[in-house]
Amino acid sequence: MMKKVGLLIISLCFSHLGLAQKLVLKGSDTLGAKLVPMWAEAYQRVNHSIKFEIAAEGSTTGIAAIMNKTADIGMSSRPVQSTEISEALTKNVNFESTTVAYDAIAVVVNEANPVSNLNQAEVESIFTGDVVDWGEVNDEDGVISVYTRNTASGTFQDWKKMAMHKRDYALSSQKMAGNEQIVAEVAKNKMGIGYVGLAYVEALGLKILSIDGVLPNAESARAKTYPYARPLFFYTDGKPKGEIKKFIDFVLSAEGQKIVNEVGFIPIQ
Amino acid sequence: MLTASRRFRVWGWSGDDLIRLFFQGNALVAILVLGLITIFLFREGMGFFPQYQKELQLYRKSGLEFVEVMRQQVEAHKALSRLLFQVEKAERQNATPTVTSQQKIAFKNYLAQFRKIIVPLIDLEMEWEKVAVDLRDRYRVAQDKKERKEALLQSGKFQEEEQIRIETFDFQKNANFLKDTLPRYHQINRVISDEINRLINQAPHWTSSKANEQWDEFRESVTRYLSQMPHREKQLEEWNAFEPVPWIRALAGFLLGKEWITQSFWNDFYGILPLLTGSFLIASVALALAVPLGIGAAIYVSQIASKTEQKWIKPCIEFIATIPSVVLGFFGIVVLGEGIRWLTQQEFLSWVPFFPVHNRLNIFTAGCLLGFMAVPTIFTLAEDALNNVPRIFKEASFALGANSLQTILKIMVPAALSGIMAAVLLGFGRVIGETMVVLLVAGNRIAIPDFTQGLGVFFQPAHTMTGIIAQEMGEVVRGSLHYRALFMVGILLFLISLTVNYFAQSLVKRFKISIG
């Protein structure tokens, strides 16, 4: 009898551990499509028992997931808004942020497009729809196809703040599910323009625009000469504890930050 | 056998009873689930309107509505700039060769000057917008805090509760501030109209007839724009921050709203019209393809084809229904969309007004794929309808000396017509509810397509009702306005399907008369 109870307790303990050793990360596509899976893989090489569940559908989904308590870590490329913080408090959730890397958002066009530099005012007028024809910023005419991320994306919000004076996107903009999709469409559409995280610019048929003569890279982002640079965050409910903390510590360690560099983002140091 | 089953009894139930009960149970479960879904959908969705009304009330109270009048003017001015650009573009492309590059630069400068006129108003608008948006956000934070305070009170955490300070708001003061700065707006407006008149009088001489034509159009729009100024000013003077927003405004805002804007720093709007038009345009392309294909194939298989042909064609068409829609979606992006774009960019097709098409994700591509997906539905049902026409009809027709083509077109198809219509309607239901393909292929542009482009409208990107639910469901917080808005879209889809099914059913009912 005692033996049976003991077995039962042991198996219960294990099943409990089994649950605790799965980390659920939801949110940003910028982080979650490339960088976080690499981190998870490297982390698993040391800690075999940890399982990861990564869903990268946009920062807002990550923040909503922390609020709905359906994820351990919310990946986000934008800071939470004041209304989100207060809303979370009504659900007894306290956002705690950790900056895990930096990113610069690159403006990309098709390589067949003669434009190679824009100024910030031109970027704003293109994405807000004040300007709808390439002829207004260049010599060659053609209706501009604006590709943006969808509303769940943190980049979608960041871009409005950084490049558009918080104004809304042109109604004619097309909302793409991820960075890769924007890259694919712009690389195929001569009239296309879009923006992507620094880790996604290496693609055939794509041209990175300089903004006021400055190209996006780690140096220009650090020196703040490139205007569209931003931090990337992990959000947790309260201070990270246990396995979550161990993983975040790994991410912030020299080894974790080396991966940041390899993927194409900018390490925090 | 029959006696054996009678002997088998459990708690007084015979085997037959048990089997009947099992089937009865299955039917009951299906109906219960349908009921639960309906109830859930309406419970989550109907809360949208009161919440939206409250939101619009806050929009008014915080002064955002006031600022919107100015925003509209800024937008109108920018639309004029775009028109003026069209004049300049027409001039550049069609000008007589005598136009010097110096003149071209003058045209560009003229355009730039027109653009610059609006800058003071943009500055003023941004200043006021900041005040209004800030007030609204702070008010929302305070509302959340209030909610938390109450929750803490109820759970008896008095100390924590006391620490929460809630800001109080004086909306009247804000409204007064906005109204007090109105003279500045009037003055800016006077400068704007003076500047515009001055520029119009100094207009460059356009050499091409197309540019002149566009210039006349531009002049007309400018006159309209200037005549709206006093109207806007009056609107702002009469604006009252505390006038209640009627519930009908929320309803109209949803059903007739032309903008679906979410995650905006300015304000979220949930207007269904762009999604509705997108859905219907795609469905119309799909039906235009699927109806002739599906019905034609059905007529061939049921009336003309030999037995061996039937054996092959039917399973092949029905197999289409088993292809996963995500596979079709990928095919649509990579092969079909790309192919259409390649084709439209060919030199020999450049006479078509809206070619070349630059977006491979558009209404036409999505419609083609959906049409393909709807073919098996329409085919199977139409074939059934044709097969159900009594044989005597056919035989009587032949007996009167009609040939087989006459019999098919004059007798068989009319006799099966209500069944065929039902097939089309159900095919439409299939198309309007499909999600994956439109999400991948339609281009996800939330705007009412530009109908002035004629047939070109079908080559623009669009967004659909199903697509928006799939795309935005993950990001919404339960119970939020956005969440409820998506449920409302779901309800609308549900109602559309219900109506379509109702009509299909009543058509089938009428079909029975022709058999009898």
Give a concise summary.
Chain A is an alpha/beta fold and 269 residues long. Chain A has ten helices and eleven strands.
- What percent of residues of chain B are in strands? under 5%
Q: How many H/I helical runs of chain A?
A: 10
* Oligomer state of the chains in this structure: heterodimer
Indicate the low-confidence ranges of chain A by residue numbers.
7-18
DSSP, total strands of chain A: 11
- Which structural category fits the helices and strands of chain B? mainly alpha
Number of extended strands of chain B? 4
Round the Cα radius of gyration of chain A to an integer and report it: 21 Å
What fraction, in percent, of the residue positions of chain A are helical?
40-55%
> Spans of chain B with pLDDT under 50 lasting ≥5 residues?
none
**Terminal CA distance of chain A:** 58 Å
Q: Provide the spatial order of strands within the biggest beta sheet of chain B.
A: 1-2
Order of helices and strands of chain A: HEHEHEHEEHEHEHEEEHEHH
Average pLDDT for all residues of chain A:
87
What is the CA-CA span between the terminal residues of chain B? 38 Å
Structure in words:
The complex is a heterodimer of chains A (269) and B (516). Chain A is of the alpha/beta class and 269 residues long. Helices cover 41% and strands 23% of the residues of chain A. In chain A, strands 1, 2, 3, 4, 6, 7, 8, 9 and 11 form a nine-stranded mixed β-sheet that branches. A two-stranded parallel sheet of chain A has the order 5-10. In chain A, strand 1, helix 2 (29-46) and strand 2 (51-56) form a beta-alpha-beta unit. In chain A, helix 2 (29-46) crosses helix 10. The termini of chain A are far apart. Residues 7-18 of chain A have low confidence and may be disordered. Chain B has 516 residues and is mainly alpha-helical. Chain B has 21 helices and four strands. In chain B, helix 4 packs antiparallel against helix 10 (209-238), helix 15 (363-387) runs antiparallel to helix 18 (417-433) and helix 16 packs antiparallel against helix 17. In chain B, 33% of the residues are buried. The model of chain B has no long low-confidence stretch (mean pLDDT 89). Classes of the chains: A alpha/beta (269), B mainly alpha (516). The interface between A and B is large, with 49 and 44 residues.
